[in-house]
Amino acid sequence: MTFYQNIARKIPGLAIKLQQAGMYDEPEEYVRRIVFTSLSLSFGMAMVVFTFLPSPAALLLMPVFFPIIFFYFLKYVDVKIERVKKKIDEEIIFAGRFLIIELDSGVPMHRVFEDMERNYEVIGFYFGEIINKVYLGTNMEDAINETLLLSPSPNLRRIFWQILNSLKTGTDIGPSLNSVIDQIVREQDISIKEYGKKLSPIAMFYMMISIIIPSLGITMMVVLATFMGLKVTMPFFIVLAALIGLVQFMFLSMIRSSRPAMSS
């Protein structure tokens, strides 16, 4: 077993996560790629620090940067899965209702799936996968089962489960799908209300930590440095500005990531 295989085996569910994120690398290849990327970036960041603070000690920061960058790229799979999930949830209600109308109109199942693929960019991909597998000889139930595992969205999996149960039992799919869609609508309404409650305190902390404290802090620091005769160099201000920018980026990312997905 290679070094990269050993690391990949210790990351639970990496193979299925890569597929759900639409990244079709083998786990070993993905780990190898992020190790080399992390080494390159950590070396580059250490050299940037060395440029502003020319000391051999700056190169010792490379072992500090490496695990941070490595785990960031490792977590990127989960971030991408969450992005796909949000895009699916933005389409799920209209796509579900379209699916119900088509099936209630007596359109054959495979034709409905083809229409879903044509009309919905994100959700249509999964229905297209099912149709492709059926055309290659897989029966409909197995194709749905296989594709269901690749969906990062619990809501889409619930719809696939209802379709699968209908195929197995021969029952009318309309009432059960309507119930699922209504439940998704209620869940989205609850998420929007919870997001509204969280947004006000987050905005207040953003104003304080990212704007008020840095502005007042830098002003006071310059005044104190002037009275105490301390020399504040330009590299110090550049590093400080980079840190403030990083904090602002983190807050904006947190606000964006906490925003619930909803059908528009």
Helix and strand arrangement:
Blueprint: H1 3-9, H2 14-20, H3 27-52, H4 62-104, H5 109-119, H6 123-135, H7 140-150, H8 154-169, H9 173-228, H10 234-258
Helix pairs in contact: 1-3, 3-4, 4-5, 4-8, 4-9, 5-6, 6-7, 7-8, 8-9, 9-10
Give the structure's gist in a few sentences.
This protein has 264 residues and is mainly α.
Overview of the molecule:
- It is a single chain.
- The protein has 264 residues and is mainly alpha-helical.
- The protein has three domains: 3-85, no CATH class; 91-184, no CATH class; 187-258, no CATH class.
- The chain has helices at 3-9, 14-20, 27-52, 62-104, 109-119, 123-135, 140-150, 154-169, 173-228, 234-258.
- The chain starts with a helix and ends in a 6-residue tail after the last helix.
- The model has no long low-confidence stretch (mean pLDDT 81).
Comma- or semicolon-separated keywords:
264 residues, mainly alpha, 3 domains, 10 helices, 81% helix, elongated
Rg from C-alpha positions?
25 Å
Distinct helical segment count:
10
Sheet of most strands? none
Order of helices and strands: HHHHHHHHHH
As for the number of domains, it is: 3
Helix content: over 70%
- Report the structural category: mainly alpha
- The N- to C-terminal Cα distance equals 48 Å
Indicate the low-confidence ranges by residue numbers. Answer: none
Number of strands: 0
The overall average pLDDT, rounded, is 81
Share in β-strands: under 5%
- Which of globular, elongated, flat, extended, rod-shaped describes the shape? elongated
